[in-house]
Amino acid sequence: MKHLLAATLAGAALMLGGCAGNALRVEAASEVKTKADRFVADANAALEEAKARRLRANAAVVASDPSCEPLAVIVVQTRTRRGKGRVPLCAPSIAPKLGYDLQTLELRPISEEALKPTILLISAVGDYGAALGKIADRPDADISKELGSLAGKANSAAALAKAVLGKSVVIPDAEKLLASDQGKAATALLQFVERLANEQRKVRDINRYVAEHGDKVEQVVPQLRQQMRDWILLVSQGDAEIYQRSLVRAYASERAKMNFDQRLAFATRVNESRAESAAAPARADAIDDALDAFAAAEKLLRERLAGRFTPEEKRRMAKIAGARMVEALGLIADTVIAFGGIR
User: Does the pTM of the predicted model rise above 0.85?
Assistant: First the structure.
């Protein structure tokens, strides 16, 4: 037992040399997951918002003018020469009509097929973060449970030995040994070493995963940035403006029939739609910021895996190493006292 503890002490001393850097590496992997989760949540919310705005805009176009029917495709007409009277928004067909410009307008919802390329890119970021987070959050082995299981097996073996060799054979009770001060001290020290060893295993697996998948995810970022801006600034903002114009058109034709409260409600909806449209650039910038934060976290992880640390990080590492050294020395002292010295 003393030889095992001496080896454990030596192993702890060796791992303490590089453990502070490993702590920052695992921390960086966790941060990648946090930033990936934030971006994925924001991006998915933006896409859901775009889908909802498309449905709302389509309904508002049809409801804004009695000439329009709730079809998948309508024909919108615009007068090209001066004339009197109100022009119905929708034409009965696409057939050419003198003095009018005719355009078809699809009123279908945004399809899952159209969203699929963007969703796949978002998923790539989410999966990358989830995989790193899973490694970083992997728990340490519970040494006390493992030793308890081994103790049970040892006592079974002792019972068998006594049955074969006779009751006079003296074999120590393993479970009692673990419950003693010596056992508790040894278990605490072994648990500390397991924590450092597990951290090393995490860094090894994080390094391997980043080497296999990191470049692919980095290539996704610029594509994803452009696609998200297109969905927000072209599609979602465009539908918000269509909704706004539909409200204005309906208000112009219906206001004489409405009382004050009805006109106020209509005007409020128009103002809200204008605010939605005006907020689109800020929404796109927020998505950009979330993606930038993910990319920065991923870059920081690579830097730490390569052993490149900033002066501030090195100061943090020194504090971590110092705290762990104090912890290790305390555990070693407890173990040496419990065993009366290691020889």
Answer: no
